[in-house]
Amino acid sequence: MNWQNQKILVAGLGGTGVSMIAYLRRAGAQVAAYDADLKPEREAQLTQLFKGLNCHTGRLKDALAQGFDVLALSPGISERAPEIAEFKQNGGKVLGDIEILAHIVKARGDKVIAITGSNGKTTVTSLVGYLCVKCGLDTVVAGNIGTPVLEAELQREGKKADVWVLELSSFQLENTESLTPDAAVVLNISEDHLDRYDDLLDYAHAKDKIFRGNGVQVLNADDALCRAMKRNGRQVKWFSLENETDYWADVQAGRLKAGASGLLDTAAVPLQGLHNAANVLSALALCESIGLPRTELLQHIQTFKGLPHRVEKVGEKNGITFIDDSKGTNVGATVAAISGLQSPIVLIAGGQGKGQDFTPLRAALQNKARAVLLIGADAPQIRRDLGGCGVEMIDCETLPEAVQTAYRLAQSGDIVLLSPACASFDMFKGYAHRAQVFVEAFEAL
């Protein structure tokens, strides 16, 4: 894409926005910046970083009236806003950083593995990146996982990569039209971000955009919305925890399998929980899709350590195990964490619910949970949604109070699980801060 002299407004000035300004200015575009709530100190930082940068704040409509050709959106901003729809109707182009990268990698011929889903995408992205590196590929891991893609591209100074492993959120996929991954997966679809989408199907539609082009589709055979994404004439690799398929978990035998042939004992996988067996199977399918050898992949899976705050064992006290799943910020993630653990559980949940329905937790908790300890802004809604499910619910003012109460209620052999099913910003700086408070509370017991 030729950005020379294009008039571009970059909206949203977090890490992604800053990476777009840096990349597009270097590519010769005339770039201005916009944020609805631009503090003077942030503007001063940006104008120091980018000399002569024109910054806008207030109404986006007023900023767009300055005659821009392109609106480059950060993922946090929905393109469904009326002023953005109007900008498009008047011939303006709207895109995000993934769309910009798509043109770069296509022109250069870099391979791409793309990963999305409501839950597990960071684990799968990290595992796939790890496996690609271990198999000797020059690998870039970027996207929703932390490093904005254009920041990674600038760091490489245009050098071709063997493979880009991209974690993509539905927000990033909304305005991505040109990405055609060599292999892509939608891991699962469960309620999340329904404050941004019309309904679950609308949200699933955004995820489905990851399958543009003609690369290998890796799909979850256990998820009806994922099954519906199968496209005609495409190579599909299925994974399942329930039935024999291309890649599946024989739970009775404790084996991961490919069709009839055994791959690994589940005990040899370092990651906790059955849901991580599905993550490993999908990672294997993605890596084999770009030609990596199975024997080598299986060897390296056994040395992967997993992610912090993702069903991570914190420690044990008097036979009670404490597990940090602070990154479980939606209902599907918490259901997966509970279902994946085999012992009785005392669950700590709550925070900002993002408009979710918490009733799917009912089935997961039955015959598994001794109690649910509720914290945060949406504790009353969780209590309502779980009412009558036969599990005791206790309100706690703080997370340390919840940890102490959980320890008192748990018995030897039990698990105290922090898996909030909610965002953390009502009480904490983010999920990592929430995890830190949990660990400190455990250590203080």
From TrEMBL:
Its EC number is 6.3.2.9. It is an enzyme of class 6 (ligase). It is found in: Cytoplasm. Residues 309-422 form the Mur ligase C-terminal domain. Pathway: Cell wall biogenesis; peptidoglycan biosynthesis. The keyword Cell wall biogenesis/degradation applies. It catalyses: UDP-N-acetyl-alpha-D-muramoyl-L-alanine + D-glutamate + ATP = UDP-N-acetyl-alpha-D-muramoyl-L-alanyl-D-glutamate + ADP + phosphate + H(+). One of its GO terms (biological process) is cell wall organization. Residues 115-286 form the Mur ligase central domain. One of its GO terms (cellular component) is cytoplasm. InterPro entries: Mur-like_cat_sf, Mur_ligase_C, Mur_ligase_C_dom_sf, Mur_ligase_cen, MurD. It holds the Pfam family Mur_ligase_C. GO terms for molecular function: ATP binding; UDP-N-acetylmuramoylalanine-D-glutamate ligase activity. ATP binds at residues 117-123. Keywords: ATP-binding, Cell cycle, Cell division, Cell shape, Cell wall biogenesis/degradation, Cytoplasm, Ligase, Nucleotide-binding, Peptidoglycan synthesis. Belongs to the MurCDEF family. PANTHER family: UDP-N-ACETYLMURAMOYLALANINE--D-GLUTAMATE LIGASE (PTHR43692). Cell wall formation. Catalyzes the addition of glutamate to the nucleotide precursor UDP-N-acetylmuramoyl-L-alanine (UMA). This is UDP-N-acetylmuramoylalanine--D-glutamate ligase. It comes from Neisseria dentiae.
